[in-house]
Amino acid sequence: MAHVQALTHDDILKLKAIVLYIVNQCGTVDIFHILKILYFADRAHYAEWGTRLSNDTFCAMDNGPVASHLYNALKDVTGKEPLRAGSPLKMISDALYQADPLYENYVCAREKADMDELSASDIECLDRSIAENKGQGFGALSQKSHDRAWQEAYTRQKNSEMDPLLMAEAGGASEETLEFIKENREFDRLLAI
């Protein structure tokens, strides 16, 4: 069973801005592409800047990494698995709608992204990921996302959480960036004590 970290209110607001940015840039888009675009943008941001784009927990599912909380919100949009009443993720799912009941996995945005939630580096990584992945087919995109971070988690236990440090490595992080990430993780661990 995956250990999925809870998101703060600010984390959810940021995740909402990210998904709305992706959907607004892509137009009508399927859930699979949203999740993969986010993964590659998050991985790149961590590798380049040493900070995560989102604080969502990525889990290693059959077809590649999946942002756990975002996936739950997207399942609510399509009616596959409604969120419980009062779930804070409703602020994400309420900002989207199912494009067409015949194409249940496609969603559209009800609103624009709150650009105050996104930094210039966030937008740069999102734009690059959208350009690289929006037109990829399902099989190619799934295979592309089966990187070292996914493989380690999937081999350990299917659907388990992925190690963000391995995500940064898979994204091409430099040794200096990896050391920065490790130091910050240790600092965060010490603060939690």
In short:
This protein is mainly α and 193 residues long. It has helices at residues 9-26, 31-49, 68-78, 90-93, 120-133, 138-144, 148-156, 164-170, 175-192; strands spanning 29-30, 58-61, 64-67, 96-100, 103-109. The radius of gyration is 16 Å and the shape is globular.
Number of domains: 1
Strand adjacency order, main sheet: 1-5-4
Could you name the ranges where pLDDT drops below 50 across 5 or more consecutive residues? none
Range of strand content: 5-15%
Q: What would you report as the Rg, rounded to the nearest angstrom?
A: 16 Å
Proportion in helices:
55-70%
Mean pLDDT: 95
Shape: globular
Biggest sheet details: 3 strands, antiparallel
Q: Count the E strands.
A: 5
Describe the oligomeric state of these chains in a short phrase.
single chain
Helix-strand makeup class: mainly alpha
Distance between the termini: 25 Å
The SSE order reads HEHEEHHEEHHHHH
Count the DSSP helices: 9
Describe this structure in words.
The protein has nine helices and five strands, in the order αβαββααββααααα. The protein is mostly helical and 193 residues long. It has one domain. The strands form two sheets. The chain has a three-stranded antiparallel β-sheet. Strands 2-3 form a two-stranded antiparallel sheet. α2 (31-49) crosses α5 and α2 (31-49) crosses α8 (164-170). The longest helix is centred in the first third of the chain and has 19 residues, at 31-49. The chain is globular and about 45 Å long. It starts with 8 loop residues before the first helix and ends with a helix.
